[in-house]
Amino acid sequence: MADHEARARELLAPHISAYYGATAGSGGGSAEGIAAWSAVRFRPRALVDLSSIDTATTVLGTPVSMPVLVAPMAQQLGAHPEGEAAMGRATATAGTLLGVSTNTAVPFADIAAAGAPWWFQVYVTRDHHLTELMVQRAVEAGARALMLTVDMLALLPPDVNPRAWPESPARARMSNLTAAELAAADPHAVEMDPSIGFDTVAWLRQLSGLPVLVKGILRGDDALRAVDAGAAGVVVSTHGGRRLGPSVTAAAALPEVVAAIGDGAEVYADSGIRSAEHVAAALALGARAVFIGRPALWALAAEGENGVRDVLTGLAAELQQVMTQLGAPRIADLTSDLVATTPRAAS
Ligand SMILES: Cc1cc2nc3c(=O)[nH]c(=O)nc-3n(C[C@H](O)[C@H](O)[C@H](O)COP(=O)(O)O)c2cc1C
Hints:
By secondary structure, the protein is of the alpha/beta class. It is built from twelve helices and twelve strands.
């Protein structure tokens, strides 16, 4: 994965790699996010029947080959001429699921044609009608769930903001709105609505008929509110360390969220997942599955579709090894008794 990042940084224009690699504050939060998963210590089981190891599971009812999904990330045309369509083909080959950003510049039909099951990530625009149009189009194109992202209301600084990029296909975003719809909208209409609340979950459910996950939750009380508001689950996430430098890490927040909502909904996690040991740690701490962000994006930029496929299939193979070492032959066997220490809430 480190090789992919180094190669991608050589290949990409500096403004694109700066955006992909951006972190909030001093940047330490992103490194801490990775370290917090690495800090989990396991209590492996002995003398378990390990004659077959199975990484398959389901996410909101959709079967996947492993509990590792690809996170929604904006503007992948900057990494590859086919962007999310190429990411989707690699995801399909690996048998897993793709998150698709509101800020994709690739038509939903092309992403759907890649063949992977996909969830549409929603940023609610100030003009709610624009969000309605995008959600309806995502539903028509086959999205199986919505992910309402609630953690990125601050504008990125200009040096890492795609809106300051030179004019190019990679700069486009929200391309599932027509040029006429975008041109007719007030420039502020496409900005994120800072006033939305938990009632947005019911609105999106009603609009789409799909399950809604709330992405960017770091507290048990917020997780509970999301589920009470009708969410099918939450994604514990620091947006890959891009939201707030001195934030609690996802690994530290996960046990609190799992304890707050119990079996009432599905809990996902991301931010800093870099290995199969991290995947196992997140699942043992109560996540149903994890998302990987930058490792997939750097791989797409460095090696295209094959690079992403190799990252995903490599993680699946490693996960089989880790499950063997843990004495956990099925995903359902990755339970909390396997964890000896959990990261401290303050770490
Ligand atoms: C370049 C980039 C763009 C992103 N765009 C979005 C987005 O549009 N919507 C969203 O919900 N999350 C977005 N994210 C956050 C990811 O979905 C995910 O939470 C994060 O990348 C996971 O952390 P990791 O990169 O350490 O694996 C983006 C992340 C990156 C790196």
